[in-house]
Structures are given as structure tokens and as C-alpha cells.
Design goal:
By secondary structure, this protein is an alpha+beta fold. It is about 55% helix and about 15% strand. It is flat, with a radius of gyration of 43 Å.
């Protein structure tokens, strides 16, 4: 009884979860939805039995009544649970039972309720069958996968109750193939849907514009016709002129367009009018028409004027469009021609534009009254309306998608078939008529149903194929593993004793091969400790070789980068057009990005080799973070994200630390936040955690509302060259080095990093870094402005560089700063030119042919020791690792400049060296 009550409660709880799961459905296209509530139903069936499964199935399926407004899905889904539950009682596989249901009774139920009861088309019924089959089988896969995972973690279970290898292989193969094909199908169908929608929207807008142009042409044609009549009439018409009356009647009778035609004098009275007698017996000559709004407007403007639609006036029962053509300008008005245009020719004119397109065209006046329409439910003079309860969705090209309301008892497919695309196009800026084009959405639905049927059919076929294949593979592998289990059961005891295990022979190739492998493994295990020790030594040597290789590659890569960056700096000094400036910005950005990548790899190598140095200088934490944010603000704005800054006022303005490394860490975290956040916000905040007399602990937090990180992925997030998911590098890019370097730098600073994240809800990275307080300086630091105001040194510099581009680049930079430059391609040429005299300083490359920089410097220093003279020599090299500067200074160099060259750094180093050479300079 207690177990029965537990099953009921579990069924209600999981049914409620299934109801919610069905409500948050996954749409393939236009209410063709994949529901995942059955996952909870199948979980209840597996865990608590048939009673819980049926209760949860009825509750979860009840959501479809709200979604689709008919009860048939409830019957189909409940029947699925009952069928699968009854078969599972026979200890059959849940997934296999569900496949059987969707091969036999499931399609029959769908055909009966949707095809017979709801009278849907065969293509639509087929789509529902395949969609629900794929959906149901997928939910069964997910439920069985979760059941197997939970079952395998219950180590208290008896061995015979644990999942078998066969179950794992069968479920895994089915799940992988189905999910892969379903994702592909979803992407394909959605792309096709977007293409169909865009094409139909474009066609609707084009039809509207074409109709508007043709209406304008029709009006202009009638205007020209009346204008040709006006050219034959006297400019001062008088009443009683029989010739004019005759001419008017003849002109009207010769045209099917003009229902009424008349001539007015300057007082807006009819001089001539056809017909001359109204149907009510009243004469039409001499009638005062000055009260007509469109006539007054034409008289006031002196221009051709089109009036509003008129019905049942002047004895005309059919709708007409009044028009007026005045004579002369407004101040010299002498009369006008008035006409009533029939709408029938215009309607035929508009109808011909459809050319078999499944749509309708309606022309309305400024009061939204129908002038002409191809819709049967709209008549001239009626108020235009799209239909009661329609939903309007905005689309490109100024088109709207009008969708009828959901009606109980009808299918969603019928609803979309009744929807249409609508476009409103103003005919003319002065004539406030609107052309409204409507194109049925039914052809799009037909194409989508056809494509979806094909795609889902392929998925179902693939499911059946994988089912058979997985059964064969799982049986074969499970049999092999069972035999191997029997053979290796005594292996631990045999290996721990003095006796060698006796490996049986087998007629199965796989088993025999595994037996041989275990036999060899037993022999190898005795020497394993020694081999592991040797392997560790080899690994250490390989790691050192890697570091040496990275150092060498750094030097080789920095040399050409120096040429690129240097030439870019030289270009800065030239007159550039805005376009050239843009190209130069792009060039420098690319070079900086490449240099940044090299520095990342070197940083990792230096950290692992314990060869990185941290600077300790005074800087503002908030200013440093703000500068980093400035570099990323364009990316943030481009993705439409909101940036939130929350800086604590308690943090001192100046702290001692490595500003460059802090920026590097924050830049990496903000860059990741922008990369993995598609919508929402990014928050950068600071907080003072602790404060003492000489130091403090600051927390910098970067939070986002992005994709989040699973608990499993967080375990490997800070491993070099690793990312949260295997697909991340393909979708978002990156090498997986950034967070690894951040962790190591923060650790070197004595800090810590924490991560809080949940998939789908974003991540928060919190870094705690200790900083010291700076001492009060004795003298104010020299500002950048003061540095800029220093006079240029008058130096004659010998530039020794073997690489032509770097030599030319450095020469141009030095000359731009006012230095005189002499060039040498190698150490031997450098010695010759130094002997000629007149050199104030030597910039010496290290790696050169003929005679390298180290040897050249040694020869110069040997000669200087005999003559008691000293020439300043500054190393110009791509060696940029820790210890390179000290090594070169010990070799006799006076200064050190790493490549790529920063002109400000070079100028400061030259001043420092010359100041030591000539005190007071």
C-alpha cells in the first residue's frame, strides 16, 4: 500500500514536471513542436512502474489541450505510455518498446484522429506521424539514458542489477545518431523557413510596389486623356454652347472609363454635362457644384485632383472616382473638366497583376474605404479589414504576417494555411490611397511540410538502421566482455603471488588477442616502476626542449614582426588619407594580435619554467580596468550587450602591483564574457575585501549572462589548451590558454580565482589579488608632457642589422626622431665603420651572419681597453625572455631594446645610456 501511494505521488509530481516540459516546447517551424514532457513520463514509468507512468502521462499530455486546442494528443500520448509500460513488464527494453509503438499502433491512432476526425491533408498527417514518432523515441532515449546513469552510480546495487554493456552501447548509439540528425534537420528546416519567409515577403512587397506604380499609370493615363479633351475646348466656356455639349457627349460615349463627364465655368457651374439629364429627371446643365470638396481643392490649387470614392450620387449606382482638371492657374481660373471614373476597368487592371499568384490586391482611399479589391468579401465603399482576432507580426520589406486566431477543434496547420502576408504601399504622396497586397502563406507551409517530411523520414530510417546495427554490435561486444571477465577474474591474485597466470586460449580472435595482451601486461608490470621513472626524466627533458624551442621561435618570429610594426610606426609620421589611416589601424591591430598570441605562448612557457617576472609599480586599479573596458566596448556594443560597472569607492586610488598583468587578466575575463554572451549584460565590479597598514586585498569580479559552464567542465577549465566543451573552439574560437595563464599569474601574485556558474544562466569570475600601498615619493614623477618637451639628442648612431626590412624601418624611425644614422649589415662592416670614427652610439643586433653582435661587441671592448675609450653599445634583439637583458649587459652592452621596437622605449633607453656616458646631459 505504501509503495502504491509512493507511485501515485511520484506520478503526480513527474506529471506536473512533464506538463511544464511540454509547455516550454521546441518549435521546428510554425507550431510544429517537439515536446519534452514525455521524458518525465518515461522516467516515472522506469522508476515507479505503470501506475505512475499513466498518471504522469495524463497530466503531462493535458498541456497539449492548451497548446493545440484538441484532445486527440492526450489519447495518443497516454496510449504510448500504456503500450510501452505493458511491454516493459516483460523485461523488454523501454527504448525498443517505444520504437515498436511508433511502428505499429502509434501511426494508426494519428491517422484516425488527425486524418479522419480532423480531416487534415495526407502530407500534414504524415508530418505529424513522423514528428511525434521522432519526438517520442527521443524522449524514451533520454529517459533511458538518465536511468542508466543513475543506476550505474548506485554501487549498493547487486552486480546483476547494474546496467549491462549491451544497454549502454544500444542507448548511446541511438542517442548520438538521433540527436545529430535532429539537430541537422532543425537547422536545415529553420534555414529553409527563413528563406521561404523572406522570399514571400519580398514577393509581397514587390507586388505592392508594382500595383502602386500601375495605379499611378492608370490615373496618369486618364489625366492625359482628359487633358487632351481640354486642349480642344474653349478657354472661356459659356452655357448654352451646343458644340461643347456635343463634344462632351461624344467623348464620354466613346470611353468605358468615364461614367460622367462635364465642363464647369469659373463659378463651378456646369456649362456642358453628359448625360444632360439625371436619372431623376433633373437637368444636369447649370448646376452649381462649388460645394464639392474635390472641386474646391482643384480650383484652389489649379492642379489635377482626384476625389474620394462616391457611391449612389448623381444617379450613378456603381462606385465612381471623381476627378477634376482645372483651366489655368489659381488666380486666372476660367473653368474645369470634371469626370467620374468607373472602378471596373481599374479592378480588371489590378486583377491582371496577380498572374496566378495566390494573393489578393485591395486599393483603399484615405479613409480606408475600398476602391477596388480582388477579395470576394470586400466591395467598393466597404471598410477594409483583415479579419477579427488576427495577430500581426512584422517582417522585412515592410511586410506583416497576419495569423488568424486559434479555433478549438481545428489544427495548427489549418491556422497557418489561413494566414497571409500583407504589405501596404502608398500610391502617391499627394494622393493618399493605399495599395494593400495579401499573399497566402499556404504554399510556404506546403513546401515546409514536404521538406520536413523528407528530413524526418530520413531520421526515422536512420533510427531503424541504427537500432539493428546497435543490437548486433552490443550483443557482440557484451559477449566478448563477458568471456574476458571470466578469464581475468583470477588475474590480481596470480600477479600478487609467485605463480604466473595460465592464460586460456580462445577460438574468438578478440578474446585471444586480449588474453595475449594481458599476458604481456603481466610481464611488463614488474618493470613498470623503473620505466615510469625513466619516462619522467624524459618528460622533463622534453619540457625543457619545448621551452628552448619556444624561446628560439620567439626570436625568429619577433624579427619579422619588428619589421611590420616598425614600418607601421614609420607610416604614422607620413601624411595619410583617412582611408590609408584606416588600413594602417588594421595593420597595427593585426600585428598586435599576433604579438599578443606569441606573448601568451611565451607567458605560459615562462610560468611553467618559473622564469616570469612581476613588476611592482604604482597604478590605479579602477583606471586600469576602465582602460581594458574601453578596448572591448565596441565588441560589447556590436553584440547589443549592456555593460555595468560597479567600482567600490573604498579602494585606494594608487596601489603597488603589476598593472600590465592585472590588465591582461581582466582583459581575458571580459573577452571571454563578451565571446560567450549573446544577450543580456556584462558586469565588472570591484570590492575591498581586507585592508591593513601596508597592504590590502581587492576582489575584481567579471559576471555575464552567457551560456554558463557545467560543473564537469569547470574541473578542466583552467587546464592549458582545454575549453569547457569540445565544440567551443569551433563555435567561438580560441586556444584555451587564456584562463590557464590567468590562474598562474594570479597565483604568482599571491591571489586566488573563484568561479560561480550555471549552464544557461551565466558565469561570475572573482579574482582576489593582494596589493601593497605605495610610499610617498620624494620628487614628483616626470610627466609624459615633460618627456615630450625634452630636446632631441644630437647623435650619430651606427645601426648594425642584417635584416633589410628591420634595418630600413629602424633607420626611418631614428631619423624621424632627429638622429643621424649610419648602417652596417653585419659585425665586420660595423667594425670598419666604427674605426672610421664620428660614431656616438651603436645599436647592435645579436644574431647576424659573418660576425654576430656578441663577438663584435667583445672585439670593440678589447680595443677600447687598450685605448681607454668607450663607445655606448645598445643591444637590439628579439631575445625577450627572462635573463636575456642581464646576460647581454654582462657581455659588455650598455643598454637593451627588445623587438618589436617601441620608439618611446628606444628613445628613453638611448637617453639613459647617453646620460651615463655623459653626466649632465
Amino acid at each position: 500500500m505504501k509503495q502504491h501511494r509512493q507511485a501515485i505521488l511520484a506520478g503526480v509530481a513527474l506529471g506536473a514536471m512533464g506538463f511544464v516540459g511540454n509547455w516550454f516546447r521546441f518549435e521546428l517551424f510554425f507550431n510544429v513542436d517537439f515536446l519534452f514532457g514525455t521524458f518525465f513520463v518515461m522516467s516515472a514509468l522506469l522508476s515507479y512502474g505503470l501506475t505512475a507512468g499513466l498518471i504522469s502521462g495524463i497530466i503531462a499530455a493535458g498541456c497539449t489541450l492548451l497548446l493545440w486546442h484538441h484532445p486527440w494528443a492526450i489519447i495518443i500520448f497516454t496510449a504510448e505510455v500504456a503500450f510501452v509500460g505493458l511491454l516493459c513488464r516483460r523485461r523488454l527494453n523501454l527504448l525498443g518498446c517505444d520504437i515498436i509503438y511508433w511502428l505499429l499502433p502509434g501511426p494508426l491512432l494519428v491517422w484516425f484522429f488527425y486524418g479522419v476526425v480532423m480531416n487534415m491533408s495526407s502530407a500534414s498527417v504524415l508530418l505529424i506521424v513522423m514528428k511525434q514518432a521522432v519526438n517520442g523515441i527521443l524522449n524514451a532515449m533520454l529517459a533511458q539514458s538518465l536511468f542508466l546513469i543513475l543506476k550505474s552510480k548506485k554501487r549498493t546495487e547487486a552486480v546483476e542489477n547494474l546496467p549491462t554493456m549491451r544497454q549502454y552501447i544500444f542507448t548511446a548509439l541511438m542517442l548520438i545518431s538521433t540527436l545529430t540528425s535532429l539537430v541537422f534537420t532543425t537547422i536545415m528546416v529553420r534555414i529553409q523557413t527563413a528563406e521561404y519567409e523572406r522570399e514571400l515577403a519580398k514577393k509581397t512587397a514587390e507586388l505592392g510596389r508594382a500595383t502602386a506604380n500601375n495605379v499611378i499609370y492608370w490615373l496618369e493615363y486618364n489625366r492625359d486623356t482628359i487633358q487632351s479633351l481640354a486642349a480642344t475646348l474653349p478657354q472661356n466656356p459659356r452655357a448654352g454652347d451646343a458644340s461643347i455639349q456635343l463634344q462632351i457627349e461624344k467623348f464620354r460615349n466613346g470611353s468605358v472609363i468615364f461614367k460622367r463627364l462635364g465642363l464647369l465655368d469659373s463659378r463651378q457651374r456646369t456649362v456642358a454635362y453628359s448625360p444632360s439629364i439625371y436619372p431623376d429627371g433633373q437637368p444636369s446643365i447649370g448646376v452649381d457644384l462649388s460645394d464639392r470638396e474635390h472641386i474646391r481643392s482643384a480650383v484652389a490649387t489649379g492642379k489635377w485632383t482626384v476625389g474620394d470614392l462616391v457611391i449612389a450620387r448623381s444617379g450613378v449606382t456603381e462606385p465612381i472616382i471623381p476627378v477634376v482638371m482645372p483651366f489655368g492657374a489659381a488666380k486666372e481660373f476660367k473653368g474645369s473638366i470634371i469626370a467620374s471614373l468607373s472602378t471596373e476597368p481599374l479592378k480588371r487592371f489590378v486583377t491582371n497583376l496577380l498572374h496566378g499568384i495566390p494573393g489578393q490586391i485591395t486599393l483603399v482611399d484615405r479613409n480606408s474605404l475600398v476602391l477596388v479589391s480582388t477579395r470576394k468579401d470586400l466591395t467598393a465603399g466597404s471598410l477594409y479589414t483583415t479579419g477579427e482576432g488576427f495577430v500581426n507580426t512584422r517582417l522585412p520589406f515592410g511586410v506583416s504576417h497576419w495569423i488568424p486566431p486559434v479555433r478549438p477543434g481545428s489544427s495548427v496547420m489549418q491556422r497557418w494555411n489561413s494566414s497571409f502576408y500583407l504589405h501596404q504601399q502608398q500610391v502617391d504622396q499627394h494622393l493618399l490611397w493605399q495599395v494593400i497586397t495579401e499573399i497566402s502563406f499556404k504554399p510556404v507551409i506546403a513546401n515546409l511540410v514536404k521538406n520536413a517530411n523528407l528530413a524526418l523520414g530520413i531520421i526515422l530510417g536512420l533510427m531503424l538502421f541504427v537500432t539493428l546495427l546497435s543490437i548486433m554490435i552490443s550483443r557482440s561486444l557484451s559477449r566478448t566482455i563477458t568471456n574476458l571477465q571470466k578469464i581475468t577474474r583470477e588475474l590480481p591474485a596470480k600477479l600478487s603471488g609467485d605463480h604466473e597466470p595460465v592464460w586460456p586460449e580462445s577460438s574468438i580472435s578478440e578474446v585471444d588477442g586480449l588474453s595475449n595482451n594481458f599476458r604481456e601486461m603481466a610481464v611488463v608490470l614488474k618493470n613498470q616502476i623503473q620505466e615510469l621513472a625513466e619516462a619522467r626524466i624524459a618528460a622533463d627533458r622534453a619540457n625543457q626542449a619545448k621551452s628552448d624551442f619556444l624561446a628560439s621561435m620567439s626570436h625568429e618570429i619577433r624579427t619579422p614582426i619588428n619589421g611590420v610594426i616598425g614600418m607601421a610606426q614609420v607610416l604614422r609620421y607620413t601624411d595619410l588619407t583617412p582611408e590609408q589611416q584606416e588600413y594602417l589601424d588594421g595593420l597595427e591591430l593585426s600585428a598586435d594580435n599576433l604579438l599578443s598570441l606569441i606573448n601568451d605562448i611565451l607567458d605560459l612557457s615562462k610560468i611553467e619554467a618559473d622564469r616570469i617576472e612581476l613588476e611592482c609599480a604604482s597604478f590605479s586599479v579602477h583606471l586600469a580596468i576602465s582602460n581594458v573596458i574601453t578596448t572591448q566596448i565596441s565588441r560589447i556594443n556590436l553584440k547589443g550587450l549592456k555593460l555595468i560597472k560597479d567600482f567600490s569607492p573604498d579602494i585606494p586610488q594608487e596601489l603597488l602591483g603589476d598593472e600590465l598583468r592585472v590588465k591582461q587578466i581582466v582583459l581575458n575575463l571580459i573577452g571571454n564574457a563578451v565571446k560567450f554572451t549573446e544577450q543580456g549584460s556584462i558586469t565588472v565590479s570591484t570590492k575591498l575585501i581586507e585592508q591593513h597598514d601596508t597592504d590590502c586585498l581587492v576582489r575584481i569580479t567579471v559576471s555575464d549572462t552567457g551560456i554558463g559552464i557545467s560543473n564537469e567542465a569547470q574541473q578542466r577549465l583552467f587546464v592549458p589548451f582545454s575549453q569547457a566543451e569540445s565544440s567551443t573552439s569551433r563555435k567561438y574560437g580560441g586556444t584555451g590558454l587564456g584562463l590557464s595563464i590567468c590562474l598562474k599569474l594570479i597565483t604568482l601574485m599571491g591571489g586566488a580565482i573563484h568561479l560561480e556558474s550555471e549552464p544557461g544562466k551565466g558565469s561570475s569570475f572573482m579574482i582576489d589579488i593582494p596589493f601593497k600601498f605605495p610610499a610617498v615619493p620624494d620628487l614628483p614623477a616626470e610627466t609624459d608632457q615633460e618627456q615630450k618637451q625634452q630636446p632631441a639628442l644630437q647623435l650619430r648612431i651606427l645601426l648594425v642589422e642584417d635584416e633589410p626590412v628591420n634595418r630600413r624601418t629602424t633607420e626611418l624611425l631614428l631619423k624621424q626622431e632627429g638622429y643621424s644614422v649610419i648602417e652596417a649589415e653585419n659585425g665586420l662592416q660595423a667594425l670598419e665603420k666604427w674605426h672610421q670614427g664620428g660614431i656616438n652610439l651603436i645599436l647592435m643586433d645579436i644574431q647576424m651572419p659573418v660576425l654576430d653582435g656578441m663577438e663584435t661587441t667583445r672585439l670593440i671592448r678589447d680595443e677600447e681597453s687598450e685605448k681607454e675609450i668607450h663607445i655606448p653599445i645598445v643591444a637590439l634583439t628579439a631575445f625577450a625572455l627572462k635573463g636575456d637583458r642581464e646576460r647581454l649587459m654582462e657581455a659588455g652592452f650598455d643598454g637593451y631594446i627588445p623587438k618589436p621596437i617601441d620608439m618611446k622605449v628606444l628613445d628613453n633607453e638611448l637617453r639613459r645610456v647617453m646620460k651615463l656616458q655623459t653626466p649632465g646631459l
